[in-house]
Inverse folding.
């Protein structure tokens, strides 16, 4: 049974989990050090996690590890709040670690603008099938899958472009930005 607190706020979309195949690709980039917006049913194997009750936006996302991935799949209804903070942390920490943000590929939205500071984008082919936690689900049951009605993109702040290319080259279009940030 998923903890009822999981549904304390936002719509069901806010809790959509990363599918296993994408977790496997992220791990090809490196170990996931931090997931700042996790939940009780997440399969993202991050060393450090923050839940809504902690408020992952309040914390410094740096940690003692010299490298590793910060992976962020923010609550859908609060993307405007999360995007500028993820972009700021991505720029600040990019010499040391890889910050990878999963959002809808809505490049014309105002909230998308801070993301152009990323070093690479992976425009994922097709539409993602997210894991949809269901509070009525019995313990141990496979989470239901739900198809996103939009395309998705990974914005990556990283000084290791070849690792990003080799992790994702066959699941999306990997584009490197040429901006001198
Ligand atoms: C889209 S889900 C992603 C879960 C997991 N990271 C994954 O990718 O499978 C986002 C989760 O962030 C949590 N959340 C919402 N606001 C948060 C906050 N301020 N701090 C930490 N977590 C938060 C919600 O409970 C929600 O389930």
């Amino acid at each position: 049974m998923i903890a009822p607190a999981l549904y304390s706020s936002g719509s069901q979309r806010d809790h959509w989990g990363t599918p296993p195949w994408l977790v496997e690709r992220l791990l090809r980039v490196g170990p996931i050090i931090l997931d700042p917006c996790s939940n009780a049913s997440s399969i993202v194997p991050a060393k450090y996690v923050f839940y809504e009750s902690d408020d992952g936006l309040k914390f410094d996302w740096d940690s003692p590890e010299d490298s590793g991935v910060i992976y962020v799949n923010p609550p859908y209804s609060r993307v405007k709040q999360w995007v500028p903070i993820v972009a700021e942390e991505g720029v600040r920490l990019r010499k040391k670690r890889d910050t990878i943000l999963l959002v809808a590929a809505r490049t014309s939205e105002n909230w998308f603008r801070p993301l152009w500071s990323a070093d690479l984008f992976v425009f994922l082919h097709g539409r993602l099938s997210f894991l949809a936690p269901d509070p009525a689900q019995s313990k141990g049951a496979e989470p239901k899958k739900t198809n996103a009605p939009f395309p998705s993109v990974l914005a990556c702040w990283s000084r290791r472009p070849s690792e990003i290319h080799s992790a994702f080259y066959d699941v999306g279009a990997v584009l490197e930005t040429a901006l001198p940030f």
Q: What stands out?
A: Residues 1-9 have pLDDT under 50 and may be disordered. The CA atoms of residues 40 and 48 lie 13 Å apart. The first strand starts at residue 32 and ends at 35. Residues 6, 14-18, 35, 37-39, 42, 44, 50-52, 54-57, 73, 75 surround S-adenosylmethionine (CB under 6 Å).
